[in-house]
Amino acid sequence: MARIKYYYDTETCKYERVKVKKQDIVLNLLGLGSLIVAVAAGLNMLFSSYFVSPKEVILKNEVAEMEFYYENINDKVNDLHEILIALEKRDDEIYRMVLGAEPIAPSIRNAGIGGVDRYQEIRDKDMIHGEDIISLSEDIDKLRRKVYIQSKSYDDIIELAENKAKMLAAIPAIQPVSNEKLIRLASGFGYRVHPVYKVKKLHTGIDFSAPIGTPIYATADGVVSNTTISFGGYGKHVEIDHGFGYKTHYAHMHEFIVEEGQKIKRGQMIGYVGNTGVSTAPHLHYEVIKNDKKINPIHYFFNDLDAAEYEKIIELASIENQSLGM
Predict the structure, then answer these.
(1) How many domains in the chain?
(2) What is the pLDDT of residues 30-52, one digit of tens each?
(3) Deepest of 26, 30, 81, 289, by most Cβ within 10 A of its Cβ?
(4) Which residue range(s) make up the domain with 253?
(5) Model pTM score
């Protein structure tokens, strides 16, 4: 039951009942409400200063987790950049140098990605970590482009290596007659006395003196481009086209065991030493041709001979004697 309030009226000398207006009641209630709200807000601020709500705890944990994974991914991207730099350095300074190719220009390796702003959508969202995300995205895009360029470079290197291997296999690099069967180097490259005409003529190959029937071997990979039987000149002879401008010629053979168009491997037997054509004794006349020019075969025995043997054969080749045939 509400308490009734009185006041003493000095004019009537009586206690009169206090009459409360509705407006006063409303104002009192509003004041009380405002006080309650202010106290509640103050208590909430005080509580928030010392205590964190479960929702805030969850959000803070999510932000911390995202920052951790961002740093982790950023570190991994940087590590990949370092690995790629090492691969690029090895590519330019080892692989391409060995294979005789030019290094890839830095302007190509470090070229950016043109076109419209690829990250406008992220900027439009006005995210708290938007710039960090854009920076990471740019690093990943650069890394992806550099990996693509490096992969294309490795494709080129594989092709260069295959061509290099084919070229090395195409260079005449062994003696056409085995050392075991070699009696002597009869005549070297250069001007020699012709065995029939008895005048000095350019001897365009090397004569290997050996018994009839001694095996003759191809000195490099190639394809038989010509086989000829003649009663004069080179007699029975074989020509092999090795590609890359190289050809070899084997003359005065007793017999050949290959045919035109046949693929040949280095060290494969192609026939036997003979004494056919214009020849004064059993021997093999061997020529090396580079870009249609006959050159000294003495420089193409590096797979068969050690340093001492190579010096000896150069000494024998330099002796100006009579050739044994054409």
Answers:
(1) 3
(2) 877 788 888 777 777 776 666 66
(3) 289
(4) 184-318
(5) 0.54
